Amino acid sequence: MNIDQTAGDEKLARLLQEGSDRAFDALMSRYKGRLYAFICRYVADRDEAYDLLQESFIAIYQKIHLYDSSRKFSTWAFQIALNKCRDWGRKKTLTRILPFSSFDKVDGQTGFIENFADQGGTPEQILIGRNELEILAKAVSKLSDKLKTPLIMCVLEDMSQEDCAGILGVSQKTVETRIYRARKKLTEITSLKSVYSS
What we know:
Rna Polymerase Sigma Factor, Chain: A, two-stranded antiparallel ribbon, elongated
């Protein structure tokens, strides 16, 4: 059965529920970059992120019968990836968190630092900016799960607060408040008031 590559996510998910492996391949192709980038930024370990990405897709395949096609597939897929990240966090005690800048590019996506770095300045200005952002990246990794998750989703992944709220099962106001608190906490940790002021 041929798959229309322009079909919406929800239609592909319904086809997967009907047993279409090609629909699954299409969804994997569509989401592997976004999910991998999100997981990398969450766990700060490329190898672990790759394993968690595979686990996420296995879970999507195995649990597709639980997917409600009246909901956005992206919300459901990110929920599964987030749960895998949280499981990983509970199972592993980190003695050292790698800086996000160790990821130059993730499946064609720019890394954490590149999302914020000012590429228009002098080499000296860019170097200073990157050093400050190194500090910020490490600070993000130290945030609580409650604050880190919406910050990564909305600020780094450019996800809407509405979609983030759907994934986390909270209100948009709660997402907005947590992002505000995350920014405030980062300012306290790094004293880089200009980076996250808005």
